[in-house]
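User: I need a structural model of ABC transporter I family member 10 isoform X2 from Coffea arabica for a docking pre-check later this week. Nothing fancy, just the predicted structure tokens so I can convert them on my end. Input:
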Amino acid sequence: MNLSSITSTSAFQLPLLPIPQSHASRSCGLVENLAIECQSLSYSVTTKQGKSKPILKDCSLSIPSGQLWMLLGPNGSGKSTLLKILAGLLTPSEGFFRVKKPRGFVFQNPDHQVVMPTVKDDVAFGLSRFNLTYDEITSRVEKALDAVGMYEYLQRPVQTLSGGQKQRVAIAGALAEKCKVLLLDELTTFLDDTDQVGVIKAVKSTLASSEGITALWVTHRLEELEYAEGAVYMEEGQVVMHGDPPTIRGFIEARQAAYIKQIYS
Ligand SMILES: Nc1ncnc2c1ncn2[C@@H]1O[C@H](COP(=O)(O)OP(=O)(O)OP(=O)(O)O)[C@@H](O)[C@H]1O
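Assistant: Understood. Predicted structure tokens for ABC transporter I family member 10 isoform X2:
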């Protein structure tokens, strides 16, 4: 169901990774072929004491259409908050953002999203608000489940599915609604290795077989970067860098090594 610049950090100063020209072209001042764009996005909450607490600070990033990008960063760095803003679930305090629509948000815990009795009912649920015939709904549900490798589970009760299968059903819900952007919040956190790879491959093959669907995937798992075309790394509410996965991976590994050295020195 479907419900960079580098900013200064204490230890590292790296240059902005520009978006390759093949990914984005400028015309009349607007960036074309981008699925997601944020400029100077900030988000604050008001504490019980009445003080403003910044959660996101001056975040800028651009993600081209048709690609899988990863969003990484330590706990509490603001990844989920940024994703919720992009999904329209939170309103930024300042800045500008644009996301191609329709967009779909898939939660970390599939039990919060996959709630109808059977797989086909769950994928069809969001379609009830469109004026579609029964045949159109059936066709969309079948195509969406096929895209995530779950077609044979059409009639299955959802409580018999594994966590990874439920995640794929949740993604199918967004695909059935013809979402152009999939916002995927730590889908593999609770999954074993087999389910993890199954979900990520389902997203990859969906993007490969469709026209211009883009996915932004929040993760803590560095090894998942091998599936991505691009990545964004956040710390303390800021986008520290964004660009190609090997460079981001090298940066994070250097950061982790420095942290471990600091602990043991
Ligand atoms: N409504 C809120 N009120 C107060 N603090 C909040 C609120 N929402 C988020 N925060 C804080 O903002 C910070 C960023 O939270 P967020 O969930 O976006 O981080 P994250 O990078 O997704 O973390 P994790 O990897 O642990 O899921 C955290 O310190 C969190 O406690």
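Before docking, keep this in mind: Helices lie at 79-86, 119-125, 134-147, 163-176, 193-208, 245-264.
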